[in-house]
Amino acid sequence: MVLVSAGLSIRGAQEEDPPDPQLMRLDNMLLAEGVSDYRAKLTQIRQIYHTELEKYEQACNEFTTHVMNLLREQSRTRPISPKEIERMVGIIHRKFSSIQMQLKQSTCEAVMILRSRFLDARRKRRNFSKQATEILNEYFYSHLSNPYPSEEAKEELAKKCSITVSQVSNWFGNKRIRYKKNIGKFQEEANLYAAKTAVTAAHAVAAAVQNNQTNSPTTPNSGSSGSFNLPNSGDMFMNMQSLNGDSYQGSQVGANVQSQVDTLRHVINQTGGYNDGLGGNSLYSPHNLNANGGWQDATTPSSVTSPTEGPGSVHSDTSN
DNA sequence: GACCATGATTCACT
DNA sequence: AGTGAATCATGGTC
Question: Which UniProt keywords apply (predicted)?
């Protein structure tokens, strides 16, 4: 019996679980990570193990008493020494403990298989479904100014794409780096998705504008962020973002508006004509990609390309 | 089988 | 902890 407690930790730390929103959120996260699935299977193995173990123990006891009874009956006809009884019981117990050993062994195997399968599943690369890639791309290109989905957005995307949050993070990590490395290559893709979402974006903006007009004719109090570098294009959005020097990952409302802006600007640019490729100004030029790289501002605050006052005025200044 | 695309992993950085 | 960058490893296509 020592082996039992030593082999597998029996008592899981799971008692009851009152409906706690925090717990539910964690559960969802684990589910998204595919962890609960693993845990569920593990629990299943554990349950089987314990019921089997119990069964064996019970059977062992029953069998011993049965044998004892037989021996007792036999003792009437012939003398049976206590030593013989002890020996009998010993044999029975040894037999059953060997059975238990087998049970433990197969349980361990099952756990190992489960674990390796779980790890393999995460390690093995399988292409996402076309739909999933589409969803991810749509998000990416409509948030091109700030393709850093929040935790909630990642969870949402994960759910939509039927992949894990980690996979979403991986995807965005890869996408950002690969997009940045070779923007030209992704031009077509960017155009495609921009056009795709343009209609929805236009509708949304139109609705928002209408709503704005009807509701309050005053200035929109978009306390949004955005905070990225819009190279040229002295659009009104500059004002919006300079309202708040905050970094991205800010309010979702702002992000939404920004995504629509991205899409719309793309479309506007497209219709307004552009120099194809080699002029350097790709139509879907990385608004916020500065010369040195990333979307991430603050890495190199210098960015002194040409102090042509205009709208360029990267971030910095704005001494509020 | 070569080649490219792509998801995953690792490591360094902040 | 989240990210960028490099790299690995596999899938898919020819």
Answer: DNA-binding, Homeobox, Nucleus, Transcription, Transcription regulation
The residue that leads in pLDDT, A224 or A154, is A154
A26 CA to B5 C1', in Å? 34
Nucleotide nearest to A154 (CA to C1'): C2
Mean per-residue pLDDT, A137-161: 91
Asked if residue A97 has pLDDT above 70, the reply is yes
| CATH number reported for the structural domain that contains residue A174 in this entry | 1.10.10.60
| A289 within domain boundaries | no
Q: Is residue A135 part of a domain?
A: yes
Domain range for A160 is: 130-208
The band of A140, judged by pLDDT with boundaries at 50, 70 and 90, is: very high
Q: What distance in Å separates the CA atoms of residue A211 and residue A214, rounded to the nearest whole number?
A: 5
What is the average per-residue pLDDT within A144-158? 91
User: Stated in angstroms, how far is A170 CA from B10 C1'?
Assistant: 13
Overall number of domains in chain A:
2
Q: Is the CB of residue A31 less than 8 Å from the CB of residue A166?
A: no
Residue A116 lies inside a defined structural domain of this protein? yes
Residue of A55 and A5 predicted with greater confidence: A55
Of all protein residues, which has its CA closest to the C1' atom of C9?
A: A125
Which one of A180, A208, A236 terminates a domain? A208
Please determine, for residue A107, whether its predicted confidence score (pLDDT) is greater than 50. Answer: yes
In chain A, the percentage of residues whose pLDDT exceeds 90 is 9
A208, A225, A251: which is the final residue of a domain?
A208
Task: Please give the nucleotide, over all strands, whose C1' is closest to the CA of residue A166.
Answer: B8
pLDDT (mean) for A272-283: 32
Q: Which nucleotides of strand B come closer than 7 angstroms to any CB of the protein?
A: 5-10
